[in-house]
Amino acid sequence: MSEAAFSTQPSRTGxxxxxAILIAFLLVVVVVLVLPLTLTQQAADANLDPTTLxxxxxxxxxxxxxxxxxxMFVALAAxxxxxxxxxxxxxxxxxxxxxxxxxxxxxxxxKQHLSFALALPLAPLVAAAFAGxxxxxxxxxxxxxxxxxxLGTGVAVGEVIKNLDVFxxxxxxxxxxxRHADALFFYLMAANAGLAVVVTWLVMRSRFGYGLIAIRExxxxxxxxxxxxxxxxxxxxxxxAALTGLAGGIFAQWSSFIDQESVxxxxxxxxxxxxxxxxxxxxxxxxxxxxxxxxxxxxxxAGGGASAVYAQMGLGVLLAVTVIFVPRGVVDFFGGxxxxxLGYFRRSLRETSx
Amino acid sequence: xxxxxxxxxxxxxxxxxxxxxxxxxxxxxTTTTGADIILGAPLSLTGSxxxxxxxxxxGYDMWQTWVNQQGGINVKGVKHKVQIKYADDQSKPDISxxxxxxxxxxxxxxxxxxxxGSGPTASxxxxxxxxSIPMVExxxxxxxxxxxxxxxTFGVLSPANKxxxxxxxxxxxxxxxxxxxxxxxxxxxxxxxxxxxxxxYAPGKGFSxxxxxxxxxxxxxxxxxxxxxxxKNPDILLNSGHLAEAIAINKAAKDLQLxxxxxxxxxxxxxxxxxxxLGKDSYYVMDGSQWTPQVKYKPTFYLSVADYTAAYKSTxxxxxxxxxxxxxxxxxxxxxxxxxxxxxxxxxTDKVRDALASLDVMTFFGEIKFDNRGVNVTKPMVVxxxxxxxxxxxxxxxxxxxxxxxYPTPPWSQR
Lengths: 354, 415
Hints:
Helix content of chain B: 25-40%
CATH topology of chain A: ABC transporter involved in vitamin B12 uptake, BtuC
Oligomer: heterodimer
CATH class of chain A: Mainly Alpha
Largest interface: A-B, 38 and 45 residues
Largest sheet of chain B: 7 strands, mixed
Strand content of chain B: 15-25%
Largest sheet of chain A: none
Strand content of chain A: under 5%
Structural class of chain B: alpha/beta
Shape of chain A: globular
Distance between the termini of chain A: 26 Å
Shape of chain B: globular
CATH architecture of chain A: Orthogonal Bundle
Order of helices and strands of chain B: HEHEEHEHEEHEHEHEHEHEHHHEEEE
Number of strands of chain B: 15
Helix content of chain A: 55-70%
CATH architecture of the largest domain in chain B: 3-Layer(aba) Sandwich
Distance between the termini of chain B: 76 Å
């Protein structure tokens, strides 16, 4: 290993590589955003009988569905980052907000026959109101206690809803199917993902964001310096809840069937945290990168039987390895000032071991 | 180094020969043979319902082997062989929906066979609907799926509300006639539909439901429930739940000396596990079953009941009878096959949908005929009883039964 490996000053070639990666990334984003527009009615019907058109389309419903799911997890991971990454509170129950958002839309469209457009704005409001309500007592807890309390809340909300017959009880809810709307749901999910990134960017540049980081680094000191810690923490929690609830609301109409099992899955909690941490908790693009890569992996391995099971085990190992060797996430190698090298791992290991 | 690369190259060569062979055997061509029909089946081969998903796959595979031995599905004199593409949905509704879309778009499946369970069936029904692809399912009994006006989903099973109706019909014929019912039910969608139907149906047959209680799905500590039921001294103890809960309730009934004259559980007693876990305490217990190997239907199509049971045993090299999950899955395939034949087309999926809607066929599984929701309301549920010979016998309805019911159940102290 040369001395350069330990250098924290990025070289000129390093900058060039980063710029190239950024341009490539932006190009991919543009292509991903534009392609679903070609999913016209004609193209959508082509998967019934592709021979009649004689064209193989670059985009199809299956790809749009995969992209929609990935965009959903980008929003979930970026939202978690606000409370888990920036504020340093390990929230393990964000799936409660996803489920509440989903049930808000499900209840209003299926039982009250409200239109999706009118129901959707209420999803983030309900989720944020709930976060505000439970945030005041829960955010007084620290560390493991906060993690366990939020985990319990996530499970409890799902169980309560399942036992209320007005919300469909054990059967669940069936928002009416919106036909030929695959591209619409993709754009809604992508817009929510974009919103989550923009909100994170604004927060990181505001007095509010510096307050959150101060709380993460040393809550007592922040309080002494005049940060209203309770208001800041609850604010971050509610903001995360609103973005997560909005994703849930879109999901409910998109899948047209929700029950406790499908919108309060405990594994979503683990997945969104994993995505944020592997990508880089507390950073702007870390959770985005983590969500894209991990969810793409999960979806491409799904359906393969044993490989999906091994993938689940692999995710656990990946988390452990990341936390020990790459505690700042993989984006540290791109946007930050670190280089991928053996020396980096050695230093990380020194930092993370007791 | 060179050796390793050479080894790799020869490996690739061997692999490509294999692939080429596989490709060649796939599409045999004679004058009466058409293109293969591609079916898609998302199934839980891992995850919480992997066992049931595996049974459903056995049912699909049995039909596929049989129909391909016949040369394929006969569409206006042209025989089309069948390929079933499976995808493991890990027992998760969202993954199941994703895979169903991928089967339709990427694997170009023309028709769908259902997944296992009411949750995945509901989420896949939405995908079938959005893509206008007919789906015939045999493993999602909750009726809510069929109350939303979906046009492309058809279920061959008797719906959840029929599960314990046969037991009540049977009880009404018994002497001394029982009159009171205690109803216990797990809080999942299927079990709740079963219980709601009992509460609606029993009063009309002269019974009163004296105790009705919901418990969390998966409970095994049920003694307080059973004690509360015993306080009402019911003639009939009914449970709608799953295997583990049925075993726990039967044990608690013995411990607390709940001496009902008739015990019946929606799901559980039909499996060998129930008898193995409880031994002699399992005797006299009844269940509602979609199908048993003893039923006496006279099919006009496919195998007879006895031949089906024999074919199952030889195909999977086992001594055990086929479970009803296997039979209902095969029945879903039969409904689809008959509809394609009746429609006389493979490519016009809407015509096949219409043929499913107007289907009426007698199979080894019973009559398959869908109402306007896509539910098979024609086929009755049968009542099965574990009798004192330690075996399962079909006891109701009498035209398909192989034994008289053993009634009343003696008190626990005299067993």
